What does this fold into?
Amino acid sequence: MSVAVSFKGVSKRFTLHHERPRTLQELTIGFLGGDRGRTEQLWALKDIDFEVEEGETLGIIGPNGAGKSTVLKLVAGIMRPTSGEIVVRGKVSPLLELGAGFHHDLTGRENIYLNAALLGVRERETKAKFQEIVEFAELERFIDVPLKHYSSGMYMRLGFALAVSVDPGILLIDEVLAVGDEAFQRKCLARVEEFQKEGRTIVFVSHALSTIAEMCHRALWLDQGRVRAIGSADQVVKEYLESVK
It folds into this structure.
């Protein structure tokens, strides 16, 4: 099988700024005094290697701050690595932070067209799929309401319906399935299973370890930005649970 996603020696560093000046006066005094605020270098990922084959579902697990979401953002092209090589083959549809890319003052309808365009979907294709997106999201009554009036569950439903409508080769899912009612979560997981049967590639971040073990072919365990283990989902989840006892 061919490789859909490849990480080779990938590291990602963030610069954290502490005690930022809050006023122009503080900025000026700090600049003239040579104090531009303390900074800290944070390595979210450090020299990681892994591959995801076409048609594979890879689950990524680990504690908060382990670098899981950073991996998805690098695959999506939202971030660039500090060092290393990333190769992605296929159209990517990211379902990352809840409401990411949505404009709160625009309606659900307007956000569908805006975000579809950002994902490279032509307007006529969005028109053809519009009703399907709205029905899947179960938002018929609210589609012309500004998103600032949506609940978190409504955000998730719209985001998921849009992400799975663009015919992705690679679907990225970051924990958002934990939001919303149980019936809609089952509906989303059923759609993910359809994608698996169609041979789509899926990278799935979740703290729901039972879901990872059940739905994923393999799992990647990250710890403090490094690969702790990678292998069959059952085995990696078992090792992770034993480590946190």
Observations:
- The radius of gyration is 20 Å.
- The mean pLDDT is 88.
- Residues 239 and 245 are 10 Å apart (CA to CA).
- Residues 56-84+91-243 form a domain with the Rossmann fold fold (CATH 3.40.50.300).
